[in-house]
Each structure stands twice: as structure tokens, then as C-alpha cells.
Design brief:
The chain is α/β, with parallel strands linked by helices. It is 42% helix and 8% strand. Helix 22 links the parallel strand 11 and strand 12.
């Protein structure tokens, strides 16, 4: 099949059905991942799978239907992708199966199948399932504990919010309402306090209640009372308003107030309504005084400046009420004295009567009789407060009642609506006004209760409406009251933005000696502390005996003049929880804070959210790193919050360095910092370290953050490849942490600093490497600029000890085990839980996957747990597949977690570069997207192999043949489509570069490894099958080359076999890739000219030299007739030219011919006096300009021993061959057309070239042929090939070609060089016949019919070239046509075509 076809024809009815073969791993290769997936889904009804597994007719039908819709067109594209995957895996399996049979026949030990391979597979699967079950159970338990801890914390917060959670709401407030509604019952005095009901009753003045302006003569019946019902306003009337249930009354804190019930009810129906559970009525005087309001759903406090209309009630009888209050106080005093005397019976309350104008009314919720119960009497609707109120056990009932009455009086005085909170009713010692929009009057009314009762907890957070005077009064009158100084434990003034002089002064007195000695919690977040009070406040905090929690968020401390002294005083006390967030601190202040925290042994929680001010030295660096660096000496913290501090990957490295051995710190909050993937790598390594106590990291919105050009390159630390050159400014925390991290890397690898560091320069005196850490911390200077080199080559040598130097796969595996981060088994569950907790946050998940994929190493069990999120299972596997241990078996186990077909195809597409990467045969071209984890792994692996091979070459003292003279195996490196080693990147060598995490990296890798010259070659039958499989493959040429690269390390090739493989591919680009892929599998490199002549264009050869290296693709053994163009600005091109100069000096200086030197400005120097002798020394060669020449050499001038030594020295090939074993070759394109015509005429006339030379030289010749002797021989031999006017000139041109030395005579050795050209022509014909045998069989008639498409009986030259390309032959065809065309007529007939039979191989 044509290798260029890359799509499937749906109209082909004879297409072969897909029948994937299932084979066990370990036998003759294994099925591909996608074929295995399809074979497991044979019963699926997915349209794509049905199309893949169906026959040709069903596929044809489905394709026609699918092409009619957009979704169907997408499915067809997915089908083509899936079909391409199947064809790829089929080709790979077929070639591996062929090679397996070949090596097994040779009884190669590496290809022997273990006898218990199936048992091993079953055992591994069983162990895999057991480990997965254990990890799953531990992970679920850990996540359950985390959720339980959160729920417990929430439950405790709710319990603190409502201490009396078990008590019934209605019963709890009965005491307050009993006092509040006193006077509403018959025979009791009426209250004069405004009550909050459905109608709001605000202000009271000295003359009584003020009546609002009238809206006309309308009575209460005409008032429309609006009620929100289902989101709509409706008007109630009649009895419906009389029967409004108590459950419809508004509660405090409700978002919307409902309209009031109808007040048009007579007083005589009050008792009956009470008995039936309805609201009581109100007297007729109040009915007449009520007025309608358009905005009755909102409450406007007294003295409000809002323009809303208000409803007021008029009420008199103030004097009578005052008399009642006086009598009640007298009775209370008597009762107290009787209690002191031991009498507990309370005398009955004296009856009090008021005027007939006083209404009897009841407002607010009260207990409702249960159905069937005996109706209560009107005089005792509610039990006395002393009986029903479950007051605080340490408060007397009288105190509670008095406090409630004082609160009601205070509400009357301050003209506010009373709120029956648990503090007012006596059920709690907590003043809870958090987030309730409390105003000054509300707070002042609470003072009445606070003066009489004990207060333990005060929460005024969110009190933005409170004034400084009100808060100061509350602090002075309540909290500084004698009974509260010993009971107050918690105080929160968070967001009380108006707390200023008076309240802050009272707060300082509260904290000073003699104040609230039991206060352990203080929250002043959002309160700007004044300068005059800041010092005394910090001093009081320092000396306070019980204060443990202090929150100073956004307290304005960043601008304080003496902030250091304040920090020192605060942290000198007993503070355990300190929240210092949202205070703008400078770098020096944060550094001082870090020193204090590192010395403090009491502090457990610290909050520094958004504390980093702009750095004056470097605005791109967060000042928070100065604080973090100080934590390297150890901390007692268990929780640290450094969110929103502009911490990037540099700060993350400082965090990892500082907290690596902090066992107490369990929770770290770094959310909303631009960490990026590189920063997350540092934090995840910290989370998974054995000595770290971290179990959870909050990293919300940390996925963003990119490397800026100013910090890219050598200043970036990469955990998996830390070696390189570092330029460190030791005044910066990041660079100091980087130096300490390098020390730790050496310590982890068990290397001394002298074995890893190479100090280049230090501008602040003499730099001495530390030999060991001081108290667990590696000492580094804090000033100066240090240039240092770091190398881990000794660690690599130790890791790969006992491994063959050419076993790159094992070297990479050993290196990954040593240098990649392996999570400690105790920290693995927190790491997996961190991933689970990010479920639903796709961007954070993708960033975490990228971080894990670049640094970590996992087993199949761990990786399968990370695939728990089905939505991104394919992406998870694709990004983490490079981290997997266990080889192909583990990869199969992990890929089985992806169950969706589209996800599986997406997964294979994303990790394509990783799956196609063959460490055993790494040479080739790579184009890698560094944002893809799989591609980044390949780039990192190539960098490691380059470092390994270059280090090996240095140790063996081999010549440097790299592109830039740095021993690197990497050539033509482009990053972001620009040369990497250009001026913009300021890099001298590739190993100095740290691979970034974005953009595209494009390079050529040329390995230094060479095959064994005695390696076993594929026999003819195996190689013929190999070519047939390639030719009949259903995948395109690039895919075939990718497959060939995957299996290249399993094959050895001869130069002739290489030549035949190149004939499979149509274009020069594919032939170029095919040669580069398998170039280093050639065992007879001394015969390389056999396949080199296949590249007829000079541009093709120059491109191959550029990609493989000018010294690698050098024609050491047969450099004759080779034209070269060398750019002296490139190191390896200067070296290659110098090799030619030295070779010419040994053989013949004149061998360098047709030379010219082009200066950088374009001027051409013809070098009239010859090539300068100074160029023989490499160091004296010019480093600019280009040099063009052709090398020619006579056979008698060859120095084979020198050529062989150069091949071994510079080419690094293993050569063990004599000169007689070399197949001397010449390219047909190197000879002029007349020379080839002379060659064909001579081979047709004489048996061989020796006989032809004797015919020209004569029987008694002298062994050489002169020009006249050659012309005479041409006339005597009657050569008619060149007849014409220019016949003699053409004969002279042939003679000059045969006399490369220009001596005027042709020796027998020079004449015999025509055999080299004949060998090329003959091989081309045999190569053509071998292809025809594979394609059409041995019948020449079939081949003739295929080429003679028009049936004319003759084939012209143009038709010959066109038809050969159409039938799939891509080898040289021109010399073949010239050979067949015996009469030089420009066309060949069937008779002439039959001359090819002599080149057919005999039947086997």
C-alpha cells in the first residue's frame, strides 16, 4: 500500500474488518493500548466503537449518515484519529513480532520468555488490587476525618452563637414578654414602652405619645393593610384579618416585615380571641389614633433622618405608671429583706386600677394554648416570670427580672424597639450583636442590663453604625463594671470602624492591670488604632495574664512609627493566636516579625493575609519572603495564613526551604498568590516530605503565575535537574534559599559540598563552602554576589553503578528514582486528599497535575487514586503517566481507569510524545510543547541524557564534536522559535539552561552511542518481510518513521539495508527523517557512501550534516567527489574543515580543489596562493566567513589507516575492517552524463573494467593511458555514443574526469574507479528488481503492464519517472533507464526491458 496515504476511503467495500488480537504481555510483544481498549469494549453501543468494529458495509452506511450533521462530521474525524491509532499499533506489533521471532531463533538471552510469565502477571494484578483497596480505605478515612473536623468546628461555632440551643424558643422568652406586657391583663398597670409588632411604635416624649398627622377622616376600617403573600401584595379585610395567626408575626432578623392584623375589634372580644389562639384587640381610642402608612413594612428608628412616614400611637396615663413603678420598687425591697430573714413566700401584688380610658391590649408572641386544653383566665394569660424563666444558674431571679425591667425602661428612654435577646432575657452572658446593624441607642439600652448582670462574651462585630461615644460608654459602664472585670472572656469589636479615642482609651484600661483579667479573646479587626493608644495597648497586651487570641486585621499598624516595638511587645506576651492580616508592612518589619515568630514558643496560629507592601528594592518580589526566610530556624506554629501576598514561585521555594522540618505546622493557607505551576511544585513537595508536619494546604486561585524573562533561565531551581550554573545575589532571600536548597540536594544525594559545588567567583572576599548544617540550617552569607556551578554527576555515577553506559532506559529509570520526588508513605494520604478536595476546581486541578507530573514519582496504585475524577480522568493519566513506575504493566493498569472512548483518544493524543519517546534510540528531531507535562518530561529526559553523555565524553577525554564546543548532544535548539543560545538569553551552554514551563522547544538530539560493528544483522528473508510490512502498512510515512524509532534499538542494519529502507519513502524529507532515526544502528559505517549517494541534491546533504553534525556525518572513509560548505562561525564546521586540511596534508594538498572563501561581508576570496597553512591549526582558523571546496583523491594517494583512525577518533564509531573489505562506491550524480554513457558502452562491450583498460593501453602497455592514447582507443573501438561535431571535446572531458590528479595520464587504479559508478548503477537495478519482486512478483510482464499504462509498447523517460512514482518506487531511476535504453533512442521497448532478467535473484 502507498505509504503516503493517510486517510480511509469509506467507499471501499473490500476493507478488512478489525479483529484485534489479544496477547499476554511477555509473549512476542503486546497489543497496543488503544487496541486493548477497543477489544474490552466490543459490546459497547458507542457509535464510534460500532463503526470501528463493524464491517465495511456498515461503516460505509454510518459514514453517509454521519456526514449529514455537524456532530456526525466530528465523529468521522474521531473515527479517522482512532483508525490512525489502530494502524500505528498494528504496524508496531507486526514489526515487533517479526523481530521477536528473529531474535528468538538466534537464542538471544534478552528475548527469552520466562516460563512463569502468566503467574507473575496474575500475582502482580492481585497485589495491585490489594494495595489499591488499602489506599482507598485510608484515603476515605482521612477525608472523613477532615469533614468531621470541619463539621465539629461549625457545630461549636453554632453552639457558641446560641448557647441555649436545647431550650424552646417560646418558653425561653416568656419571662421577657411577661414583663414587657405587664398591664395588658385586667387589673395590671399598662406599659408605656413602645413595642415592636406588626405596627411599629417609636418615639415617646414628656407629654405622652405623639400622634402623626392625619390622612383624612378615614377610620381604621378604611386602612389597607398590606401583606406579602407569595411575593405579591394583597389587601386583607373582614374576618380574615381578625384571624391572622401568631405564626405570621415577624421575627427579629427576618428579611421582610409582614403587615399588621386588623385592629378593628372590640374590647369585649379580647378574652375570647385569647382563648382561641388569636391576637387580642386594641381599644377604640387607639383605633382612632392609628393612621395608615404607605411603607408599613419597614421600621424607622426614632430620630431617623429618613424621609419615611411613620405611624405613632398616642397613649396617656404616664403619671399613674410612675406611681406604680415606685410602689413596685418598695415591694421589691421588702421582698429582699424577707428573703434575708428566711421567708421565701412572696406577698401578693397589690391591685392597681387605672382610668377607664386605658386600653387593655396584648402585643407580641406569647404561648398559645394547645387544642383541647382548658382556656386560660384573662387575668393570668402568662405565668409569672419567677416561675417559668430558666435563668442562668448563677443569677438570681430577682436580678433577671430587674435587668429586664431596666432594659425596657432604657428602651423607653432611648426610644428604640426592645429586642428579647438571650442576654436581655438572662439566658446567656453573651452580648451577641454581630452583623445586626446595631446603632448607638441599641447599644446604650444594653448597658442597662450589663450594669446589673455578669458579662462573659461581647460580640459587636460588624458594628459600623456605632459611634465612638456609644462604644466608649458601653466599655466603661459595662465591661469596666466591677462584676464584669472577673467574668469577661471574649471581646470582639471587629469592623467597628468608629472606635476611636474614647473607646480605645477604655479598651486600654480594660487590658491593663486591674482590668479584665480573664479576657482571652480580643478581636479589633478593622479598628484603626490611634498612635497615642498603640503603645499602651501593646504594653497592656504584653502584660495581660490571660489574653491568648488577638486579631488585628486592618488595624492600620503598617504606618505606625514604632511598629517594631509594638510587634515585640505583642509577641512577648501569652498570645497563641495572632491575626495580623491586611496591615501594610515593609520588608524590614516583616523580617523582624519573622525573627520574633521563630523565637516565640507560645504562638500557634498566625495570619498575615495581604500584608506585603511594595518593595522599594524590587517591586516584583513580595516582601513576605523576608518573613518566611526567618522561619528556617524553626517555629511553634500549627497554622499559618499568608494568602494574598503576591508570593510567586520564588517565595514558594523560600517556603519549602523554611518549613521543610517544621513538624508542628499542619495547615498552610497560600490562596490567591500567583504561584504558578513552579510554585505549586515547591508546596506539594513540602506537603509530601517526611519531616514536614503539613497535612493540608489551601491553594485556591494559585494556578496563575508565569516566569518573567528577568528571572528565567539559570536562576530557576528545578528539582529533577538541579545541576547548572547559578548567579546568586545573596542579599535576596530567594537566592539565599536557593543556595541552601542546593546544599540540601547534595546532602540528600549523600555528597559533600566540595563534590557538588564549583565556586567561580565571589565579590565579597573569600567564599568558603559549609561542610555541614548548623543546628539543621545550612549557613549562607547575606551579602555579596556569588557565581557557582552545581553538578550531580557523581550522584548519577553512583545511581547507575553496574548499568551499561549505553542502557539509556535504565539510566533514566535510576535517575528518576533518585532525583524525582517520592512521597513519604505517611504523607501520601494527605497528598491524595489534597487532590480530592480540589474536585470541581478545574484550573486548580490542572495546575496540580502539572506540578505533580514534573517532580513526583508514583506507583500504579497511587495514580489510579488520582483518576477518581471521571471528568478529567484522561487528562490526569496523560499528565501523570511520566511519573509512573512499573513499566508497561503499570501503564496498562492505569489506562484502564479511563473508560470513555473520547477521553481515551484525548489521553493518547496528549501523551503522544512520551509514548513515542525511545530512550534507547533518542536520536532524532523533537518539537515539544513545554506546557504539556508529557512533552516536558521528554525535554527533561533529553537534557538528562545530554548531561550524561557529555559528562561521559569528558571523563573519557573524547574529542568535542558538538555544535558549539560544549560537548552537548543537542543541536539546532530553538525556544519560542528563536535560537536558544542567542544574545537574548545570555547563555553559553545548553546545560546552563533550566527548561521553562511554556512555549515550544524544538531541537535535534544526536547521541554519542554507536552500535557494535559485529552486531547481528537481519537475514535476507527477515529483512524482506520487514520491508513488506512497511510498504503494506496502512499508516502514512511519518507514522512509519515513528514506529521505526520505537523499535530502532532492536535492529542492526547494514548500509545496503539502510539504502533499501530509504527507497520505501516518497519525499526527501521522509528519507531524511528515516536516515536520522536509524543512522546509529548501522554496523558497517565504512560503507556509508552506499546510502549517502541516495541523496542527489547538495542541499539534502547539507541539511543532514546540520542535523547529525558535520563531524558525525563526515565522509571519513570515502570523501572523494564530496562538495562541502563550512560556516567558520560554527565550532563543529570549523573542526570538520580542519579534519579535511589535515587529511589533505597526509594524502595530497591538491586534493582540496575548487575552493573559495567568502568573507562575512559577502566578498569572495579565491585564495590564489592556496589554502593558508595557518588553517592547519584549529586555534588559528578564522571564526567567521564560509569556505567552499571539493575533495578529490586518487586511489593510490589514499591513506586508509589515517581515515580509519579519524573515523574512530572524531566519528566515535567502532570500526574493525581492512581496506579490502570496504565497498568502494561512487554516486551516479557525481559523474557527468557522458562518463555514465561511456561506462554503459564499456560494460556492454567488455567483460569487466580490467579488460577495457587493457584494450586502451594495449598488450604491451605501460600501465597508464594518455589523452592521445585514449582518443585513439575510442576510434579503434568504434564508440558511436558521442558522434557529432563536439565528439573530441566530449572524449577529452571524460579523460579529465578519470584524471583527478591532473597529471595528464590515467593510471589503472584511476581507470578502475569506473567500477565504483558501475557498482552504484548495478545496485540501483538490483534494488529496483527486489522492489518489483515484493510488489508484483517475478513476472516482468506484470511490471511492464503497470509501467506501460497507455499500452503503446514503449516507455519514454518522462513516462518512466511518472509511472515509477505512481506505483510506489522512490529509488534512483535515471541510471536504470539509461542502462535499459541500449540504442540511446530516449525510449525503451519490451525487448530492451527484458534485459533486467539478469538482475533478478534466483528462486529460493
Amino acid at each position: 500500500m502507498d505509504s503516503g496515504s493517510d486517510s480511509e476511503d469509506f467507499e471501499t467495500s473490500g476493507e478488512e474488518d478489525l479483529e484485534p488480537r489479544r496477547m499476554e504481555a511477555g509473549f512476542q510483544g503486546a497489543n497496543g493500548f488503544f487496541i486493548d481498549f477497543v477489544s474490552r469494549k466490543t459490546k459497547s453501543r458507542h457509535p464510534l466503537l460500532v463503526m470501528l468494529l463493524g464491517d465495511a458495509r456498515s461503516r460505509q452506511r454510518m459514514a453517509r449518515r454521519a456526514s449529514q450533521s455537524e456532530a456526525g462530521i466530528k465523529m468521522l474525524q474521531s473515527y479517522k484519529d482512532a483508525k490512525a491509532l489502530i494502524n500505528f499499533e498494528r504496524l508496531e506489533w507486526n514489526l515487533l513480532n517479526l523481530l521477536t521471532n528473529f531474535w528468538k531463533k538466534l537464542q538471544h538471552p534478552s528475548w527469552a520468555t520466562p516460563p512463569d510469565v502468566l503467574q507473575q502477571i496474575v500475582r502482580r494484578i492481585h497485589m495491585q488490587h490489594q494495595m489499591e483497596s488499602c489506599v482507598q480505605a485510608e484515603l476515605e478515612e482521612h477525608i472523613l476525618e477532615l469533614h468531621k473536623a470541619k463539621s465539629d468546628a461549625l457545630r461549636q461555632a453554632m453552639a457558641a452563637k446560641r448557647e441555649d440551643d436545647d431550650s424552646d424558643e417560646s418558653v425561653r422568652r416568656q419571662g421577657f414578654w411577661h414583663t414587657f406586657h405587664r398591664g395588658t391583663r385586667k387589673g395590671e398597670p399598662r406599659p408605656v414602652t413602645p413595642a415592636k409588632t406588626e405596627l411599629y411604635l417609636p418615639a415617646l416624649n414628656g407629654a405622652g405619645w405623639v400622634q402623626p398627622r392625619s390622612r383624612g377622616n378615614s377610620s381604621i376600617e378604611e386602612v389597607e393593610i398590606h401583606r406579602q403573600d407569595g411575593g405579591k401584595n394583597a389587601t386583607l379585610s373582614g374576618k380574615a384579618r381578625n384571624r391572622l395567626e401568631v405564626s405570621k408575626l415577624p421575627q427579629r432578623g427576618a428579611g421582610i416585615s409582614k403587615s399588621a392584623p386588623d385592629l378593628k375589634r372590640a374590647h369585649k372580644f379580647g378574652a375570647a380571641n385569647h382563648a382561641s389562639g388569636l391576637l387580642p384587640s386594641i381599644g377604640p381610642r387607639l383605633q382612632k389614633a392609628a393612621a395608615a402608612d404607605q411603607d408599613r413594612c419597614r421600621f424607622t428608628p426614632p430620630n431617623s433622618k429618613r424621609g419615611d412616614s411613620k405611624m405613632w400611637w398616642f397613649q396617656s396615663g404616664l403619671e399613674e405608671h410612675r406611681d406604680y413603678i415606685q410602689r413596685e420598687e418598695v415591694a421589691s425591697k421588702r421582698h429582699s429583706r424577707r428573703n434575708l430573714l428566711g421567708h421565701v413566700k412572696e406577698p401578693p401584688m397589690p391591685p392597681t386600677s387605672f382610668g377607664s380610658h386605658c386600653p387593655i391590649f396584648h402585643l407580641g408572641p406569647c404561648p398559645i394554648d394547645s387544642p383541647g386544653a382548658e382556656p386560660r383566665r384573662s387575668a393570668a394569660l402568662l405565668p409569672p416570670i419567677e416561675v417559668v424563666v430558666p435563668v442562668h444558674e448563677q443569677l438570681g431571679r430577682q436580678e433577671v427580672a430587674a435587668a429586664s425591667r431596666q432594659y425596657i425602661h432604657a428602651c423607653q428612654r432611648e426610644q428604640v424597639v426592645p429586642v428579647p435577646s438571650t442576654f436581655v432575657t438572662g439566658h446567656s452572658r453573651k452580648v451577641d450583636a454581630a452583623g445586626k446593624a446595631v446603632v448607638d441607642s441599641d447599644l446604650l439600652t444594653l448597658c442597662a442590663v450589663g450594669r446589673l448582670t455578669e458579662v462573659e462574651d461581647v460580640d459587636l462585630s460588624g458594628g459600623k453604625l456605632l459611634s465612638d461615644v456609644a462604644m466608649g460608654t458601653f466599655l466603661q459602664d459595662v465591661l469596666l463594671a466591677p462584676q464584669n472585670l472577673g467574668t469577661l472572656q471574649r471581646l470582639s469589636l471587629s469592623e467597628c470602624v468608629h472606635a476611636a479615642r474614647q473607646s480605645q482609651a477604655a479598651l486600654v484600661r480594660l487590658l491593663q492591670e486591674g482590668g479584665a483579667s480573664r479576657l482571652h479573646f480580643l478581636d479589633l479587626s478593622g479598628v484603626s488604632l490611634a498612635m497615642r493608644h498603640l503603645g499602651p495597648f501593646c504594653q497592656a497586651v504584653e502584660k495581660h495574664p490571660a489574653l491568648q487570641t488577638l486579631r488585628l486585621c486592618n488595624a492600620g499598624l503598617g504606618g505606625a512609627m514604632d511598629v517594631r516595638n509594638c510587634l515585640r511587645r505583642i509577641l512577648s506576651g501569652r498570645i497563641q493566636v495572632l491575626d495580623f492580616g491586611w496591615n501594610c508592612l515593609l520588608a524590614e518589619e516583616l523580617k523582624f516579625l519573622g525573627e520574633l515568630v521563630s523565637r516565640n514558643k507560645n504562638l500557634r496560629q498566625l495570619g498575615l493575609a495581604n500584608c506585603a507592601a511594595s518593595s522599594q528594592k524590587n517591586s516584583s518580589i513580595s516582601p513576605c519572603v523576608y518573613f518566611l526566610e526567618q522561619l528556617v530556624h524553626g517555629v511553634s506554629l500549627t497554622n499559618l495564613d499568608i494568602s494574598m501576598n503576591r508570593i510567586d514561585f520564588r517565595g514558594a521555594l523560600v517556603i519549602e526551604d523554611a518549613l521543610e522540618r517544621s513538624r508542628r505546622l499542619s495547615t498552610l493557607n497560600v490562596s490567591h498568590n500567583p504561584l504558578g505551576v513552579m510554585g505549586l511544585r515547591c508546596l506539594l513537595r513540602l506537603l509530601a516530605r517526611q519531616d514536614s508536619g503539613l497535612v493540608a494546604i489551601d491553594m485556591e486561585n494559585c494556578f496563575s503565575g508565569e516566569l518573567r524573562p528577568s528571572v528565567e533561565g539559570i536562576q530557576v531551581f528545578t528539582y529533577t535537574n538541579p545541576g547548572g550554573h547559578y548567579s546568586l545575589d545573596l542579599t535576596r532571600p530567594y537566592h539565599r534559599s536557593l543556595l541552601r536548597t542546593l546544599y540540601k540536594v547534595g546532602q540528600h544525594l549523600k555528597l559533600n559540598p566540595v563534590d557538588t559545588f564549583h565556586v567561580i567567583s565571589y565579590d565579597s572576599g573569600h567564599f568558603t563552602l559549609a561542610s555541614q548544617p548548623d543546628a539543621g540550617v545550612w549557613p549562607v552569607p547575606s551579602s555579596g554576589h556569588l557565581e557557582v556551578g552545581f553538578s550531580i554527576e557523581k550522584a548519577m555515577e553512583q545511581a547507575v553503578k553496574g548499568v551499561a553506559v549505553e542502557n539509556f532506559s535504565e539510566i533514566l529509570a535510576r535517575y528518576n528514582e533518585v532525583m524525582r520526588f517520592t512521597p513519604h508513605f505517611r504523607k501520601l494520604i494527605p497528598l491524595l486528599a489534597q487532590w480530592r478536595l480540589l474536585e470541581g476546581q478545574e484550573q486548580e486541578q490542572l495546575a496540580m497535575l502539572s506540578a505533580l507530573g514534573r517532580d513526583f514519582i508514583f506507583t500504579a496504585t497511587h495514580l489510579r487514586q488520582l483518576c477518581s475524577c471521571k471528568a478529567i480522568a484522561g487528562v490526569t493519566v496523560a499528565r501523570l503517566l511520566p511519573t509512573l513506575l512499573g513499566g508497561r504493566f503499570a501503564m496498562n493498569m492505569v489506562m484502564r481507569r479511563v473508560e470513555n472512548l473520547s477521553e481515551f483518544i484525548k489521553m493518547l493524543t496528549l501523551c503522544k510524545e512520551y509514548l513515542l519517546f525511545n530512550p534507547q534510540s533518542p536520536s532524532g528531531h523533537y518539537k515539544l510543547d513545554l506546557s504539556n507535562t508529557a512533552s516536558a518530561y521528554v525535554a527533561q529526559a533529553l537534557a538528562l541524557l545530554d548531561r550524561w553523555e557529555s559528562g561521559l565524553a569528558k571523563r573519557k577525554e573524547l574529542p568535542d564534536i558538538s555544535e558549539n564546543g560544549d560537548y552537548s548532544c543537542i543541536r539546532n535548539c530553538l525556544y519560542a522559535h528563536e535560537p536558544l543560545l542567542s544574545r537574548s538569553y545570555t547563555l553559553q551552554r545548553f546545560d546552563q539552561w533550566v527548561i521553562p514551563e511554556k512555549e515550544v522547544l524544538e531541537l535535534d538530539y544526536v547521541s554519542n552511542h554507536r552500535p557494535d560493528c559485529h552486531g547481528a544483522l537481519m537475514n535476507d528473508s527477515t529483512f524482506k518481510k520487514f520491508l513488506i510490512i512497511l510498504q503494506q502498512a496502512e499508516c502514512d510515512g511519518p507514522t512509519q518513521i515513528q514506529v521505526t524509532r520505537n523499535i530502532a534499538h532492536h535492529i542492526n542494519l547494514s548500509s545496503m539495508q539502510m539504502r533499501q529502507i530509504l527507497g520505501v519513502y516518497r519525499t526527501s524529507e521522509l528519507r531524511e527523517e528515516a536516515l536520522i532515526t536509524t543512522f546509529f544502528r548501522i554496523v558497517d559505517i565504512h560503507n556509508e557512501k552506499i546510502f549517502r549517494v541516495r541523496y542527489e541534491e547538495q542541499a539534502e546533504l547539507d541539511k543532514l550534516r546540520s542535523r547529525l553534525g558535520y563531524c558525525t556525518f563526515f565522509t571519513y572513509i570515502q570523501p572523494e567527489q564530496v562538495t562541502n560548505d563550512f560556516d567558520f562561525a560554527k565550532y563543529d564546521q570549523r573542526l570538520a574543515a580542519n579534519i579535511f586540511f589535515n587529511l589533505a596534508n597526509a594524502e595530497k594538498r591538491d586534493n582540496i580543489s575548487n575552493f573559495r572563501y567568502t568573507l562575512p561581508d559577502g566578498a569572495i576570496d579565491k585564495l590564489e596562493q592556496g589554502v593558508p597553512r595557518s588553517w592547519d591549526q584549529f586555534s588559528r582558523m578564522p571564526k567567521e566567513g564560509s569556505f567552499h571546496f571539493t575533495y578529490k583523491c586518487s586511489p593510490q594517494d589514499r591513506k586508509f589507516a589515517l581515515r580509519k583512525s579519524l573515523l574512530q577518533q572524531y566519528g566515535k564509531w567502532k570500526v574493525d575492517v581492512a581496506e579490502e573489505q570496504v565497498m568502494w562506491w561512487a554516486a551516479a550524480a557525481e559523474a557527468p552524463e557522458d562518463v555514465l554513457e561511456f561506462l554503459f558502452w564499456m560494460r556492454a562491450k567488455f567483460r569487466d573494467t580490467h579488460q577495457a583498460f587493457e584494450a586502451f593501453d594495449g598488450a604491451d602497455g605501460n600501465g597508464v593511458i594518455g589523452l592521445r592514447e585514449f582518443e585513439e582507443g575510442m576510434r579503434l573501438l568504434k564508440c558511436q555514443k558521442f558522434r557529432g561535431k563536439d565528439e573530441k571535446q566530449r572524449w577529452t572531458a571524460i579523460f579529465r574526469f578519470l584524471d583527478p590528479s591532473g597529471e595528464g595520464q590515467v593510471s589503472k587504479e584511476e581507470f578502475l574507479t569506473l567500477d565504483d559508478f558501475w557498482t552504484e548503477v548495478e545496485f540501483s537495478i538490483r534494488e529496483f528488481m527486489d522492489w518489483a519482486d515484493r510488489k508484483f512478483g517475478r513476472d516482468l510482464k506484470r511490471l511492464w503492464r503497470a509501467l506501460d499504462e497507455d499500452g503503446g509498447g514503449t516507455i519514454q523517460r518522462d513516462e518512466w519517472e511518472t509511472m515509477l512514482d505512481r506505483v510506489g518506487y522512490f529509488g534512483p531511476s535515471g541510471p536504470i533507464f539509461s542502462f535499459i535504453d541500449e540504442d540511446d533512442g530516449g525510449e525503451i521497448s519490451w525487448h530492451e526491458f527484458q534485459t533486467l532478467r539478469q538482475f533478478q535473484k534466483p528462486k529460493e
